Amino acid sequence: MKYTGMPTGMWLIFNKSFRKNLTEVLKFDVKESRTITTAAKKKYKELIEKLPEFEKKDRFKMNIVSCAMMSAFLLSMPELPEVEAATEYYKQSMMTRFMQWFCRTGGKKKFSESDIEAKKEIAKFRAGDRNPYSWNMEFYEYEYEDGSGYEARFTTCGICTLMNELGLTKLIPAMCRLDYTMSEADGVSNFVREYTIASGGPYCDCGYTKRNAK
């Protein structure tokens, strides 16, 4: 994957928050945070360049790019944090004002006809069949008792593939938790989950119900 384009943009948008939270969440001092960030930028470029190019219709490129950024920072730390600390670090680093706006904007279209049709197209595309760093998804409408919402069920996970290769398996759940946070931020949905591949489940279920459904 080329570093130009989305990977460069993601670094420019999020590197300051990742660096800031090295101090505010993980309690590194300022000098350590700078050293880690410098090393992480180099590692991030290396990881991006080793990833295959994603197909134009693949909707999951941003997911693997954010995973590469988190992994680069983790691998640049003198020692890995515990899962709970890593979870909070990733949450605070990703949920910038831009990301909160992004979630609210997406929330305006959630559950719309166009949103549901887009999910069906993603399910048909099955990018994970051709790219081990992407995802395969099954889509189910109206899975819940209140008659609202849908479930996206992932049977392959690019984050698991990359982080397993990097020796970061125990910290994969730190990234999974952001699904709840992004749902909270969209203003319209409740997030429902029973399984994750990272915890040994048969798939990752990402369920969304309408927040004010009766």
- Percent range for β-strand residues: 5-15%
- Number of distinct helices: 9
* Run of helices and strands: HHHHHHEEHHHEE
Instruction: Please tell me how large the radius of gyration is.
Output: 17 Å
**Mean residue pLDDT:** 95
The end-to-end span amounts to 45 Å
Q: Could you give a short account of the major beta sheet?
A: 4 strands, antiparallel
Quantity of strands, as a count: 4
Low-confidence stretches: none
Strand order of the largest sheet: 1-2-4-3
Q: What proportion of the residues is helical, as a percent range?
A: 40-55%
Overall geometry: globular
Helix/strand class: alpha+beta
Structure description:
- There is one protein chain.
- By secondary structure, this protein is α+β, with helices and mostly antiparallel strands.
- Helices cover 53% and strands 11% of the residues.
- It has helices spanning 6-24, 30-50, 61-76, 83-94, 97-107, 113-125, 158-165, 172-176, 178-186; strands at residues 136-141, 150-156, 189-192, 204-210.
- The chain has a 4-stranded antiparallel sheet.
- Helix 1 (6-24) crosses helix 4.
- The termini are far apart.
